[in-house]
Here is the input.
Amino acid sequence: AENVNTDINLDEYPHINKGLAGIVAFTTNKSFIDGQKGELIYAGYDIDTLAEKASFEEVCFLLWNDRLPNQSELDELNTKLQNSRSLPEPVLTYLKSTSKNAEPMAVLRTAISMLGDFHEVQADSSEEFRINKAISITAKMPTIIAAFDRSRNDKNIVEPLDEKSTAYNFLYMLNDEEPGEQAEKTMDLCLILHAEHGMNASTFTNRAICSTESDMYSSVTGAIGALKGPLHGGANQQVMNMLLDIDEKDADPVEYVKGRLERKEKVMGFGHRVYKTMDPRARILRSMSKKLSEETGHKELNKWSEAILRTMKDEKDIDPNVDFFSATVYYSMGIKPDLFTCIFSMSRVSGWTGHYIEQAENNRLVRPRALFIGDKHRDWVPLEER
Ligand code: ACO
Here is the structure.
């Protein structure tokens, strides 16, 4: 805002932290990020270890309970997820009847909000109740996304299976065919990599809503709204649009990126508030992107991505974030670009709900301040004289 308040000298307020950069407002057991080293740890486990050894469902358990499950706990979680994947009929009716041109993230946001109408929202305040809510919401996200995508393409809606993983079910419901082992593994890995990431904008939104003692459907709905924006999760879709634009214009990716920088436009999928080096998730996705794009005949996408990466490093010394290479990975799997951010939500819901549980256990209302720099005293002018 423009400072029109002559009583206020902004130089006397150096503590105003635009974008809350560097502000520590919560404590958490969920994740640790070292932005200088490029390190990411979920509840004690390095992202490289989780990427290699865990399943998405184990990561969910970890984020909800702050420890890994044993076999029977994991079996129980899988059964609960399987039993919770189906949607209430009115939500399915909504997905079938909404505009085919609607943004999938907007549809997901509405559907999650609607789920709150059909389930107990605040029946009790036990941790068990909250974990079961987290399971229920997490289980339904893939069903919502797949059902909307099939419906907008005039295809039959595929019911979830009462077996198999989250990744398997999503691909199965989306494509109406059983995914291969490699596709399931790749999707599972993407879900692991996007599950949790400290006090990012959507997790902060989710915790702020939780702090008012509102319900989990409301906090996840708000978080989806925050993730949707292109400066946050929406960037993965924008990355793909950029690569497709390069293709369509038969442009040189280096000149394309330099042009954007000259026009002071952001290059999506680059830069991060916390990482000042390569995002460790981007490192993992980079090698997946190379492998997959070669295997699926999209070799040029990987070549352009690498050229863009080098140009961003040379011109701005900025590294890629999680969204840059995830775009090519999803595209190589045959997924439409406007579903990319929904897949991000499908994973991050585990982190959001983990933070909800943590916030609810040790709550204080989130309520920062804003410095008023407007006019304090204006003369009232009657309507007809304005
Ligand atoms: N392209 C071009 N320049 C950039 C980029 C970029 N992607 N990112 C940062 N910069 C530049 C800024 O223009 C700014 O330069 P200046 O000091 O000359 O003005 C400088 O680097 C610092 O950038 P800020 O925008 O101030 O950094 P901030 O921490 O506020 O923003 C953000 C971080 C929003 C992620 C930013 O890097 C960005 O817009 N990136 C593109 C969008 C994106 O990929 N978002 C996904 C982030 S990861 C996630 O949410 C999952």
In short: The CA atoms of residues 263 and 386 lie 40 Å apart. Residues 19, 200, 231-233, 235, 266-273, 316, 318, 321-323 surround acetyl coenzyme *A (CB under 6 Å).
